[in-house]
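Hi R.,

Here are the chain sequences for the assembly we discussed:
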Amino acid sequence: MIAVKHLHKSFRVHVRQARWIDAVRHLWRRQYRTVEAVKDISFTIETGEIVGFLGPNGAGKTTTMKMLAGLLYPTSGEITVGGFVPFEQKPEFKKMMSLVMGQKSQLIWDIPPMETFLVNKAIYDIDDRTFRRTLEELVELLELQPLLTKPTRSLSLGQRMRCELAAALLHRPAILFLDEPTIGLDVHTQEKVRRFIAEYNREYQTTILLTSHYMGDVTALCDRVMIINHGMLIYDGELSVLTETLAPYKRLEIHFPIVPSVPWDDYGEVVAMEDGKVTLRVPRDKVAEVSAHVLQHFHVHDLTIQDPPMEEVITRAFQEGLHGS
Amino acid sequence: MVRKYIALLRMKYVEMLAYRLATIVWMTGAVVQPLITMIVWMNIRPSQSDAFVFYFMALIFVERMTSAWDVWELDREIRHGTFSTYILRPLHPIHWAIAENIVYKGLFLVVLVPFWAVLALFVPVLRLDVTGTQMLLFLPALVLGMMLRFLFSYTCGLLGFWITKVTAVYSMMEVVSLFLSGRIAPLSMLPPVLQQWSIFLPFRYMIGFPIDILTGAANRADIAFGFLVASVWVMLLIVALCLLWKAGLKKNQAVGG
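And here is the predicted structure of the full complex:
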Protein backbone atom coordinates (compact mmCIF):
# COMPACT_ATOMS: atom_id res chain seq x y z
CA MET A 1 0.00 0.00 0.00
CA ILE A 2 2.79 2.37 0.91
CA ALA A 3 6.32 2.06 -0.43
CA VAL A 4 9.10 4.49 0.38
CA LYS A 5 12.58 4.23 -1.07
CA HIS A 6 15.60 6.31 -0.07
CA LEU A 7 13.53 9.28 0.92
CA HIS A 8 15.33 12.54 1.66
CA LYS A 9 14.07 15.95 2.61
CA SER A 10 16.20 18.95 3.36
CA PHE A 11 15.11 22.48 4.20
CA ARG A 12 17.03 25.68 3.82
CA VAL A 13 16.59 27.73 6.96
CA HIS A 14 17.79 31.17 7.96
CA VAL A 15 20.46 31.27 10.56
CA ARG A 16 19.81 34.07 12.97
CA GLN A 17 21.83 34.96 15.97
CA ALA A 18 20.34 36.63 18.97
CA ARG A 19 22.71 39.60 19.25
CA TRP A 20 21.24 42.83 17.95
CA ILE A 21 24.25 43.50 15.74
CA ASP A 22 23.55 40.22 14.01
CA ALA A 23 19.97 41.24 13.56
CA VAL A 24 21.13 44.41 11.80
CA ARG A 25 23.61 42.53 9.64
CA HIS A 26 20.86 40.09 8.86
CA LEU A 27 18.94 42.82 7.07
CA TRP A 28 21.18 42.73 4.06
CA ARG A 29 22.98 39.44 4.35
CA ARG A 30 21.07 36.39 5.21
CA GLN A 31 22.84 33.23 6.14
CA TYR A 32 21.33 29.94 5.27
CA ARG A 33 21.90 26.51 6.59
CA THR A 34 20.60 23.28 5.13
CA VAL A 35 18.80 21.07 7.56
CA GLU A 36 18.35 17.46 6.59
CA ALA A 37 15.04 16.57 8.16
CA VAL A 38 14.80 13.12 6.61
CA LYS A 39 17.83 11.12 5.55
CA ASP A 40 17.48 8.04 3.42
CA ILE A 41 14.36 6.42 4.80
CA SER A 42 12.94 3.28 3.20
CA PHE A 43 10.03 1.13 4.29
CA THR A 44 6.86 -0.55 3.06
CA ILE A 45 3.47 -0.83 4.70
CA GLU A 46 0.90 -3.46 3.72
CA THR A 47 -2.84 -2.94 3.37
CA GLY A 48 -4.63 -2.98 6.70
CA GLU A 49 -1.53 -2.55 8.85
CA ILE A 50 -1.39 -0.09 11.74
CA VAL A 51 2.14 1.14 12.12
CA GLY A 52 3.39 3.39 14.89
CA PHE A 53 5.87 6.04 13.95
CA LEU A 54 7.92 7.08 16.96
CA GLY A 55 10.59 9.61 17.61
CA PRO A 56 11.36 12.70 19.66
CA ASN A 57 10.28 16.18 18.57
CA GLY A 58 12.00 17.20 15.37
CA ALA A 59 13.04 13.67 14.46
CA GLY A 60 11.37 13.84 11.05
CA LYS A 61 8.14 11.95 11.73
CA THR A 62 5.77 14.67 10.65
CA THR A 63 7.96 15.66 7.69
CA THR A 64 7.87 12.08 6.42
CA MET A 65 4.13 11.91 6.93
CA LYS A 66 3.58 15.17 5.08
CA MET A 67 5.57 13.82 2.15
CA LEU A 68 3.43 10.69 2.15
CA ALA A 69 0.31 12.85 2.05
CA GLY A 70 1.64 14.97 -0.81
CA LEU A 71 2.03 18.17 1.18
CA LEU A 72 5.79 18.33 0.95
CA TYR A 73 7.97 17.84 -2.07
CA PRO A 74 10.66 15.23 -1.39
CA THR A 75 14.24 16.35 -2.04
CA SER A 76 14.97 12.90 -3.42
CA GLY A 77 13.73 9.35 -3.21
CA GLU A 78 10.55 7.61 -4.26
CA ILE A 79 7.16 7.37 -2.66
CA THR A 80 4.13 5.49 -3.85
CA VAL A 81 0.95 5.46 -1.82
CA GLY A 82 -1.91 3.32 -3.07
CA GLY A 83 -0.31 3.33 -6.52
CA PHE A 84 0.01 7.11 -6.68
CA VAL A 85 2.92 9.48 -6.36
CA PRO A 86 1.57 11.76 -3.62
CA PHE A 87 3.10 15.04 -4.76
CA GLU A 88 1.40 14.82 -8.15
CA GLN A 89 -1.71 15.98 -6.29
CA LYS A 90 -4.09 13.76 -8.22
CA PRO A 91 -7.67 14.11 -6.97
CA GLU A 92 -8.01 10.31 -7.07
CA PHE A 93 -5.13 10.06 -4.63
CA LYS A 94 -6.60 12.65 -2.31
CA LYS A 95 -9.89 10.81 -2.29
CA MET A 96 -8.26 7.63 -1.02
CA MET A 97 -6.37 9.10 1.88
CA SER A 98 -6.71 11.43 4.84
CA LEU A 99 -4.23 13.19 7.05
CA VAL A 100 -5.36 14.15 10.51
CA MET A 101 -3.13 16.57 12.32
CA GLY A 102 -3.61 16.94 16.04
CA GLN A 103 -2.49 20.55 15.83
CA LYS A 104 -4.15 21.68 12.61
CA SER A 105 -7.85 21.65 12.11
CA GLN A 106 -9.70 21.19 8.85
CA LEU A 107 -12.95 22.12 10.57
CA ILE A 108 -14.13 25.61 9.76
CA TRP A 109 -13.55 27.51 12.95
CA ASP A 110 -16.56 29.74 13.45
CA ILE A 111 -19.37 27.53 12.23
CA PRO A 112 -20.58 24.07 13.33
CA PRO A 113 -18.70 20.91 12.27
CA MET A 114 -21.73 19.78 10.26
CA GLU A 115 -20.96 22.55 7.75
CA THR A 116 -17.48 21.14 7.18
CA PHE A 117 -18.97 17.68 6.75
CA LEU A 118 -21.36 18.98 4.10
CA VAL A 119 -18.57 20.75 2.23
CA ASN A 120 -16.47 17.58 2.32
CA LYS A 121 -19.42 15.60 1.05
CA ALA A 122 -19.46 17.76 -2.06
CA ILE A 123 -15.70 18.05 -2.46
CA TYR A 124 -15.13 14.31 -2.19
CA ASP A 125 -18.15 13.52 -4.41
CA ILE A 126 -19.92 11.45 -1.79
CA ASP A 127 -23.47 10.54 -2.79
CA ASP A 128 -26.36 11.26 -0.44
CA ARG A 129 -26.99 7.71 0.68
CA THR A 130 -23.37 6.87 1.40
CA PHE A 131 -22.95 10.17 3.19
CA ARG A 132 -25.97 9.60 5.42
CA ARG A 133 -24.90 6.09 6.31
CA THR A 134 -21.26 6.98 6.95
CA LEU A 135 -22.14 10.03 8.99
CA GLU A 136 -24.66 8.09 11.07
CA GLU A 137 -22.06 5.50 11.87
CA LEU A 138 -19.36 8.01 12.72
CA VAL A 139 -21.74 10.05 14.85
CA GLU A 140 -22.55 6.95 16.84
CA LEU A 141 -19.00 5.63 17.19
CA LEU A 142 -17.56 9.02 18.11
CA GLU A 143 -20.60 10.26 20.05
CA LEU A 144 -20.94 13.41 17.98
CA GLN A 145 -24.68 14.04 18.07
CA PRO A 146 -24.64 16.96 20.53
CA LEU A 147 -21.62 18.53 18.85
CA LEU A 148 -22.81 18.74 15.28
CA THR A 149 -24.55 22.08 15.57
CA LYS A 150 -22.21 23.93 17.93
CA PRO A 151 -19.64 26.30 16.42
CA THR A 152 -16.30 24.52 16.19
CA ARG A 153 -14.54 27.17 18.25
CA SER A 154 -16.73 26.41 21.24
CA LEU A 155 -15.85 22.70 21.29
CA SER A 156 -13.34 21.32 23.75
CA LEU A 157 -10.11 19.89 22.36
CA GLY A 158 -11.34 16.32 22.74
CA GLN A 159 -14.69 17.08 21.12
CA ARG A 160 -12.96 18.85 18.26
CA MET A 161 -10.58 15.94 17.69
CA ARG A 162 -13.52 13.54 17.43
CA CYS A 163 -15.18 15.79 14.85
CA GLU A 164 -11.83 16.09 13.09
CA LEU A 165 -11.65 12.30 12.76
CA ALA A 166 -15.19 12.20 11.40
CA ALA A 167 -14.41 14.89 8.81
CA ALA A 168 -11.37 12.91 7.72
CA LEU A 169 -13.23 9.61 7.42
CA LEU A 170 -16.41 10.66 5.64
CA HIS A 171 -14.98 9.67 2.27
CA ARG A 172 -13.82 6.32 3.66
CA PRO A 173 -10.13 6.70 2.92
CA ALA A 174 -8.18 3.49 2.42
CA ILE A 175 -5.15 5.14 3.99
CA LEU A 176 -5.17 7.19 7.12
CA PHE A 177 -2.27 9.25 8.37
CA LEU A 178 -2.65 10.29 11.98
CA ASP A 179 -0.21 12.87 13.25
CA GLU A 180 -0.43 13.10 17.02
CA PRO A 181 -4.16 12.42 17.11
CA THR A 182 -4.28 12.31 20.90
CA ILE A 183 -2.07 15.29 21.68
CA GLY A 184 -3.37 17.32 24.57
CA LEU A 185 -6.30 15.01 25.25
CA ASP A 186 -7.14 13.73 28.71
CA VAL A 187 -6.59 10.05 29.48
CA HIS A 188 -10.25 9.16 29.09
CA THR A 189 -10.58 10.81 25.69
CA GLN A 190 -7.26 9.35 24.54
CA GLU A 191 -8.64 5.96 25.37
CA LYS A 192 -11.82 6.67 23.41
CA VAL A 193 -9.91 7.82 20.35
CA ARG A 194 -7.66 4.77 20.49
CA ARG A 195 -10.55 2.39 20.76
CA PHE A 196 -12.18 4.08 17.81
CA ILE A 197 -9.06 3.83 15.66
CA ALA A 198 -8.60 0.16 16.50
CA GLU A 199 -12.23 -0.66 15.71
CA TYR A 200 -12.16 1.33 12.53
CA ASN A 201 -9.07 -0.46 11.30
CA ARG A 202 -10.61 -3.85 12.06
CA GLU A 203 -13.86 -2.98 10.36
CA TYR A 204 -12.52 -1.44 7.16
CA GLN A 205 -8.97 -2.75 6.85
CA THR A 206 -7.78 0.85 6.67
CA THR A 207 -4.03 1.20 6.45
CA ILE A 208 -2.96 3.47 9.28
CA LEU A 209 0.29 5.23 10.00
CA LEU A 210 0.31 6.92 13.35
CA THR A 211 2.72 9.21 15.11
CA SER A 212 2.42 9.86 18.77
CA HIS A 213 4.26 10.99 21.83
CA TYR A 214 2.09 8.82 23.99
CA MET A 215 3.40 5.33 24.28
CA GLY A 216 -0.10 4.26 25.25
CA ASP A 217 -1.31 4.97 21.72
CA VAL A 218 1.39 2.81 20.26
CA THR A 219 1.17 -0.10 22.66
CA ALA A 220 -2.62 -0.16 22.34
CA LEU A 221 -2.78 0.06 18.56
CA CYS A 222 0.38 -1.03 16.82
CA ASP A 223 2.11 -4.35 16.48
CA ARG A 224 4.76 -2.78 14.34
CA VAL A 225 6.73 0.33 15.13
CA MET A 226 9.20 2.44 13.23
CA ILE A 227 11.54 4.57 15.25
CA ILE A 228 13.08 7.60 13.67
CA ASN A 229 15.72 9.87 15.13
CA HIS A 230 17.72 12.66 13.53
CA GLY A 231 15.93 11.89 10.29
CA MET A 232 17.03 8.28 10.15
CA LEU A 233 15.04 5.13 10.62
CA ILE A 234 16.72 3.31 13.48
CA TYR A 235 14.20 0.56 14.08
CA ASP A 236 11.47 -1.07 12.06
CA GLY A 237 9.89 -4.17 13.48
CA GLU A 238 7.66 -5.70 16.08
CA LEU A 239 7.01 -3.84 19.25
CA SER A 240 7.57 -6.91 21.42
CA VAL A 241 10.96 -7.62 19.88
CA LEU A 242 11.96 -4.05 20.52
CA THR A 243 11.19 -4.37 24.20
CA GLU A 244 13.19 -7.56 24.56
CA THR A 245 16.29 -6.46 22.70
CA LEU A 246 16.33 -2.97 24.06
CA ALA A 247 15.37 -3.67 27.59
CA PRO A 248 17.28 -6.62 28.89
CA TYR A 249 16.27 -5.31 32.31
CA LYS A 250 13.33 -5.59 34.59
CA ARG A 251 12.10 -3.23 37.23
CA LEU A 252 12.00 -4.46 40.79
CA GLU A 253 9.83 -2.48 43.16
CA ILE A 254 10.32 -3.48 46.78
CA HIS A 255 8.16 -2.09 49.57
CA PHE A 256 9.47 -2.18 53.14
CA PRO A 257 8.13 -1.02 56.51
CA ILE A 258 11.51 0.70 56.83
CA VAL A 259 14.02 0.64 54.01
CA PRO A 260 17.10 -1.27 55.27
CA SER A 261 20.31 0.68 54.79
CA VAL A 262 22.35 -1.66 52.67
CA PRO A 263 24.40 -0.86 49.56
CA TRP A 264 21.51 -1.33 47.09
CA ASP A 265 23.88 -0.70 44.23
CA ASP A 266 25.16 -4.23 44.71
CA TYR A 267 21.71 -5.61 43.79
CA GLY A 268 21.08 -3.54 40.73
CA GLU A 269 20.91 -0.01 39.42
CA VAL A 270 18.93 2.16 41.84
CA VAL A 271 16.21 3.98 39.91
CA ALA A 272 14.47 5.55 42.90
CA MET A 273 14.70 5.46 46.64
CA GLU A 274 11.66 6.74 48.49
CA ASP A 275 10.07 6.40 51.87
CA GLY A 276 9.46 2.67 52.27
CA LYS A 277 10.19 1.86 48.65
CA VAL A 278 13.21 1.01 46.53
CA THR A 279 13.10 0.69 42.76
CA LEU A 280 15.90 -1.24 41.09
CA ARG A 281 16.77 -2.01 37.50
CA VAL A 282 18.05 -5.57 37.38
CA PRO A 283 19.35 -7.53 34.35
CA ARG A 284 16.78 -10.11 33.24
CA ASP A 285 18.95 -13.11 34.06
CA LYS A 286 19.59 -11.93 37.60
CA VAL A 287 16.01 -11.04 38.51
CA ALA A 288 15.19 -14.38 40.16
CA GLU A 289 18.38 -14.44 42.17
CA VAL A 290 18.08 -10.87 43.40
CA SER A 291 14.44 -11.16 44.40
CA ALA A 292 15.03 -14.42 46.22
CA HIS A 293 17.89 -12.85 48.12
CA VAL A 294 15.86 -9.77 49.06
CA LEU A 295 12.90 -11.82 50.25
CA GLN A 296 15.12 -14.05 52.31
CA HIS A 297 17.17 -11.40 54.05
CA PHE A 298 14.80 -8.48 54.61
CA HIS A 299 11.37 -7.94 56.03
CA VAL A 300 9.47 -7.10 52.83
CA HIS A 301 5.88 -5.84 52.46
CA ASP A 302 5.61 -6.37 48.79
CA LEU A 303 7.77 -7.01 45.76
CA THR A 304 6.79 -6.52 42.12
CA ILE A 305 8.68 -7.30 38.93
CA GLN A 306 7.79 -5.29 35.83
CA ASP A 307 8.94 -4.68 32.31
CA PRO A 308 10.41 -1.20 32.04
CA PRO A 309 7.96 1.43 30.79
CA MET A 310 7.92 1.93 27.01
CA GLU A 311 9.14 5.48 27.41
CA GLU A 312 12.31 4.22 28.98
CA VAL A 313 12.85 1.64 26.25
CA ILE A 314 12.42 4.20 23.53
CA THR A 315 14.65 6.71 25.23
CA ARG A 316 17.34 4.05 25.35
CA ALA A 317 16.83 3.38 21.67
CA PHE A 318 17.46 7.03 20.93
CA GLN A 319 20.50 7.23 23.15
CA GLU A 320 22.21 4.04 22.20
CA GLY A 321 21.01 3.77 18.64
CA LEU A 322 20.07 0.50 17.09
CA HIS A 323 19.59 -0.94 13.69
CA GLY A 324 16.67 -2.80 12.18
CA SER A 325 15.78 -6.20 13.49
CA MET B 1 -18.36 21.25 -10.03
CA VAL B 2 -21.79 22.87 -9.68
CA ARG B 3 -22.51 20.74 -6.61
CA LYS B 4 -19.19 21.71 -5.12
CA TYR B 5 -19.87 25.39 -5.67
CA ILE B 6 -23.35 25.12 -4.18
CA ALA B 7 -21.86 23.51 -1.06
CA LEU B 8 -19.08 26.08 -0.82
CA LEU B 9 -21.45 29.01 -1.33
CA ARG B 10 -23.80 27.68 1.31
CA MET B 11 -20.96 27.24 3.79
CA LYS B 12 -19.52 30.68 3.09
CA TYR B 13 -22.97 32.17 3.55
CA VAL B 14 -23.34 30.49 6.95
CA GLU B 15 -19.85 31.70 7.83
CA MET B 16 -20.70 35.24 6.78
CA LEU B 17 -23.74 35.16 9.05
CA ALA B 18 -21.44 34.14 11.90
CA TYR B 19 -19.44 37.31 11.23
CA ARG B 20 -22.47 39.64 10.92
CA LEU B 21 -20.99 42.55 12.84
CA ALA B 22 -17.58 42.32 11.20
CA THR B 23 -19.21 42.23 7.77
CA ILE B 24 -21.24 45.37 8.46
CA VAL B 25 -18.28 47.26 9.90
CA TRP B 26 -16.14 46.14 7.05
CA MET B 27 -18.62 47.33 4.49
CA THR B 28 -19.42 50.69 6.01
CA GLY B 29 -15.81 51.33 6.99
CA ALA B 30 -14.67 51.16 3.41
CA VAL B 31 -17.04 53.99 2.53
CA VAL B 32 -15.35 56.56 4.72
CA GLN B 33 -12.22 57.18 2.70
CA PRO B 34 -13.92 57.86 -0.65
CA LEU B 35 -16.47 60.10 1.10
CA ILE B 36 -13.74 62.22 2.65
CA THR B 37 -11.89 62.42 -0.65
CA MET B 38 -15.13 63.48 -2.30
CA ILE B 39 -15.71 66.27 0.20
CA VAL B 40 -12.15 67.51 -0.26
CA TRP B 41 -12.59 67.69 -4.04
CA MET B 42 -15.96 69.38 -3.75
CA ASN B 43 -14.29 72.05 -1.67
CA ILE B 44 -11.48 72.55 -4.13
CA ARG B 45 -13.76 72.74 -7.17
CA PRO B 46 -17.27 73.69 -6.03
CA SER B 47 -18.39 74.20 -9.62
CA GLN B 48 -17.99 70.47 -10.33
CA SER B 49 -19.60 69.23 -7.13
CA ASP B 50 -22.23 67.17 -8.92
CA ALA B 51 -19.72 65.37 -11.04
CA PHE B 52 -17.68 64.51 -7.96
CA VAL B 53 -20.69 63.21 -6.08
CA PHE B 54 -21.57 60.88 -8.93
CA TYR B 55 -17.96 59.82 -9.46
CA PHE B 56 -17.30 58.96 -5.84
CA MET B 57 -20.62 57.23 -5.30
CA ALA B 58 -19.86 55.08 -8.33
CA LEU B 59 -16.39 54.60 -6.89
CA ILE B 60 -17.76 53.30 -3.60
CA PHE B 61 -19.92 50.84 -5.50
CA VAL B 62 -17.18 49.64 -7.86
CA GLU B 63 -14.53 49.54 -5.16
CA ARG B 64 -16.70 47.33 -2.92
CA MET B 65 -17.71 45.08 -5.79
CA THR B 66 -14.11 44.53 -6.85
CA SER B 67 -12.48 44.50 -3.42
CA ALA B 68 -10.09 41.65 -2.74
CA TRP B 69 -8.91 40.41 0.63
CA ASP B 70 -7.48 37.10 -0.47
CA VAL B 71 -3.86 38.07 0.08
CA TRP B 72 -4.54 38.57 3.80
CA GLU B 73 -6.23 35.21 4.10
CA LEU B 74 -3.53 33.36 2.18
CA ASP B 75 -0.75 35.06 4.09
CA ARG B 76 -2.28 34.02 7.40
CA GLU B 77 -3.13 30.50 6.30
CA ILE B 78 0.26 29.76 4.79
CA ARG B 79 2.09 31.26 7.75
CA HIS B 80 0.03 29.30 10.27
CA GLY B 81 0.06 26.10 8.27
CA THR B 82 -3.73 25.84 8.03
CA PHE B 83 -3.43 26.12 4.25
CA SER B 84 -2.32 22.48 4.30
CA THR B 85 -5.84 21.35 5.09
CA TYR B 86 -6.98 22.84 1.77
CA ILE B 87 -4.12 21.38 -0.25
CA LEU B 88 -4.97 17.95 1.14
CA ARG B 89 -8.49 17.99 -0.25
CA PRO B 90 -9.31 17.09 -3.87
CA LEU B 91 -10.40 20.61 -4.86
CA HIS B 92 -8.10 23.50 -5.68
CA PRO B 93 -8.09 25.99 -2.76
CA ILE B 94 -8.80 28.87 -5.14
CA HIS B 95 -12.42 27.67 -5.41
CA TRP B 96 -12.92 28.36 -1.72
CA ALA B 97 -11.76 31.92 -2.31
CA ILE B 98 -13.92 32.37 -5.40
CA ALA B 99 -16.98 31.13 -3.52
CA GLU B 100 -16.24 33.52 -0.67
CA ASN B 101 -15.95 36.42 -3.10
CA ILE B 102 -19.27 35.56 -4.72
CA VAL B 103 -21.07 35.42 -1.36
CA TYR B 104 -19.68 38.68 0.00
CA LYS B 105 -20.11 40.55 -3.25
CA GLY B 106 -23.63 39.24 -3.52
CA LEU B 107 -24.28 40.82 -0.15
CA PHE B 108 -22.66 44.11 -1.19
CA LEU B 109 -24.85 44.11 -4.26
CA VAL B 110 -28.11 43.59 -2.39
CA VAL B 111 -27.18 46.30 0.09
CA LEU B 112 -25.65 48.86 -2.24
CA VAL B 113 -28.14 48.81 -5.13
CA PRO B 114 -31.27 49.58 -3.04
CA PHE B 115 -29.20 52.08 -1.05
CA TRP B 116 -28.27 53.86 -4.28
CA ALA B 117 -31.88 53.77 -5.43
CA VAL B 118 -33.13 55.38 -2.23
CA LEU B 119 -30.34 57.94 -2.29
CA ALA B 120 -31.17 58.81 -5.91
CA LEU B 121 -34.65 59.85 -4.81
CA PHE B 122 -33.13 62.68 -2.79
CA VAL B 123 -29.96 63.40 -4.73
CA PRO B 124 -30.84 64.04 -8.38
CA VAL B 125 -27.22 63.71 -9.54
CA LEU B 126 -27.31 60.05 -8.69
CA ARG B 127 -30.17 59.31 -11.03
CA LEU B 128 -28.49 57.20 -13.66
CA ASP B 129 -28.42 59.01 -16.95
CA VAL B 130 -26.74 56.33 -19.01
CA THR B 131 -27.50 54.65 -22.30
CA GLY B 132 -28.13 50.96 -22.64
CA THR B 133 -24.79 50.58 -24.39
CA GLN B 134 -22.99 52.22 -21.50
CA MET B 135 -24.65 49.83 -19.06
CA LEU B 136 -23.86 46.89 -21.30
CA LEU B 137 -20.20 47.91 -21.33
CA PHE B 138 -20.09 48.79 -17.66
CA LEU B 139 -21.07 45.33 -16.46
CA PRO B 140 -18.32 43.36 -18.24
CA ALA B 141 -15.84 46.07 -17.24
CA LEU B 142 -16.92 45.58 -13.62
CA VAL B 143 -16.49 41.82 -13.91
CA LEU B 144 -13.02 42.32 -15.42
CA GLY B 145 -12.21 44.61 -12.50
CA MET B 146 -13.31 41.94 -10.02
CA MET B 147 -11.21 39.33 -11.79
CA LEU B 148 -8.15 41.57 -11.94
CA ARG B 149 -8.21 42.51 -8.28
CA PHE B 150 -8.97 38.98 -7.21
CA LEU B 151 -6.21 37.46 -9.35
CA PHE B 152 -3.74 40.11 -8.30
CA SER B 153 -4.51 39.59 -4.64
CA TYR B 154 -4.46 35.79 -4.86
CA THR B 155 -1.24 35.74 -6.86
CA CYS B 156 0.43 38.01 -4.32
CA GLY B 157 -0.89 35.76 -1.57
CA LEU B 158 0.85 32.77 -3.16
CA LEU B 159 4.14 34.58 -2.70
CA GLY B 160 3.55 33.71 0.95
CA PHE B 161 5.18 30.37 0.14
CA TRP B 162 8.44 32.29 -0.20
CA ILE B 163 8.01 35.44 1.86
CA THR B 164 6.68 35.72 5.37
CA LYS B 165 4.23 38.60 5.76
CA VAL B 166 3.71 39.13 2.07
CA THR B 167 0.92 41.56 2.97
CA ALA B 168 3.55 44.27 3.49
CA VAL B 169 4.49 44.09 -0.20
CA TYR B 170 0.84 44.06 -1.14
CA SER B 171 0.08 47.13 0.96
CA MET B 172 2.76 49.02 -0.93
CA MET B 173 1.14 48.08 -4.22
CA GLU B 174 -2.18 49.25 -2.82
CA VAL B 175 -0.72 52.71 -2.26
CA VAL B 176 0.39 52.86 -5.89
CA SER B 177 -3.00 51.63 -6.97
CA LEU B 178 -4.68 54.30 -4.85
CA PHE B 179 -3.51 56.86 -7.41
CA LEU B 180 -3.47 54.83 -10.59
CA SER B 181 -6.83 53.15 -10.09
CA GLY B 182 -8.69 56.42 -9.74
CA ARG B 183 -9.48 56.14 -6.07
CA ILE B 184 -7.96 59.47 -5.05
CA ALA B 185 -9.22 61.39 -8.05
CA PRO B 186 -10.66 60.68 -11.50
CA LEU B 187 -7.84 59.61 -13.79
CA SER B 188 -8.44 62.60 -16.05
CA MET B 189 -7.18 64.81 -13.22
CA LEU B 190 -3.84 63.02 -12.88
CA PRO B 191 -0.67 64.46 -14.45
CA PRO B 192 -0.41 63.38 -18.12
CA VAL B 193 2.56 61.08 -17.46
CA LEU B 194 0.64 59.11 -14.86
CA GLN B 195 -2.37 58.98 -17.14
CA GLN B 196 -0.17 57.49 -19.85
CA TRP B 197 1.18 54.86 -17.46
CA SER B 198 -2.20 54.03 -16.04
CA ILE B 199 -3.47 53.00 -19.44
CA PHE B 200 -0.99 50.16 -19.60
CA LEU B 201 -0.89 49.15 -15.94
CA PRO B 202 -3.59 46.90 -14.47
CA PHE B 203 -4.73 49.26 -11.68
CA ARG B 204 -6.99 51.50 -13.75
CA TYR B 205 -8.96 48.49 -14.93
CA MET B 206 -9.60 47.42 -11.36
CA ILE B 207 -11.71 50.47 -10.45
CA GLY B 208 -11.43 53.56 -12.64
CA PHE B 209 -12.25 52.02 -16.01
CA PRO B 210 -15.82 50.90 -15.28
CA ILE B 211 -16.56 54.28 -13.69
CA ASP B 212 -15.20 56.12 -16.72
CA ILE B 213 -17.59 54.12 -18.87
CA LEU B 214 -20.48 55.11 -16.65
CA THR B 215 -19.57 58.81 -16.51
CA GLY B 216 -18.89 58.93 -20.24
CA ALA B 217 -15.29 60.03 -19.64
CA ALA B 218 -14.03 57.28 -21.90
CA ASN B 219 -14.73 57.42 -25.62
CA ARG B 220 -15.23 54.44 -27.89
CA ALA B 221 -11.59 53.98 -28.78
CA ASP B 222 -10.56 54.26 -25.11
CA ILE B 223 -13.11 51.65 -24.12
CA ALA B 224 -12.10 49.19 -26.82
CA PHE B 225 -8.43 49.58 -25.98
CA GLY B 226 -9.23 49.35 -22.26
CA PHE B 227 -11.00 46.03 -22.66
CA LEU B 228 -8.04 44.73 -24.62
CA VAL B 229 -5.45 45.77 -22.02
CA ALA B 230 -7.58 44.50 -19.13
CA SER B 231 -8.06 41.13 -20.82
CA VAL B 232 -4.34 40.81 -21.46
CA TRP B 233 -3.67 41.52 -17.78
CA VAL B 234 -6.24 38.93 -16.71
CA MET B 235 -4.51 36.35 -18.87
CA LEU B 236 -1.06 37.31 -17.64
CA LEU B 237 -2.20 37.05 -14.04
CA ILE B 238 -3.78 33.66 -14.65
CA VAL B 239 -0.50 32.40 -16.09
CA ALA B 240 1.45 33.90 -13.18
CA LEU B 241 -0.95 32.36 -10.70
CA CYS B 242 -0.58 28.90 -12.23
CA LEU B 243 3.20 29.13 -12.31
CA LEU B 244 3.42 30.41 -8.75
CA TRP B 245 1.04 27.72 -7.57
CA LYS B 246 3.18 24.95 -9.08
CA ALA B 247 6.44 26.38 -7.80
CA GLY B 248 4.92 27.33 -4.45
CA LEU B 249 3.75 23.81 -3.69
CA LYS B 250 7.31 22.59 -4.12
CA LYS B 251 8.52 25.33 -1.85
CA ASN B 252 5.74 24.77 0.67
CA GLN B 253 6.99 23.87 4.10
CA ALA B 254 3.54 22.97 5.42
CA VAL B 255 4.60 24.52 8.70
CA GLY B 256 3.39 23.45 12.09
CA GLY B 257 1.71 20.34 13.36
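Chain A touches chain B through 38 residues (CB under 8 Å). Chain A has a mean pLDDT of 88.

Let me know if anything looks off.

Best,
T.
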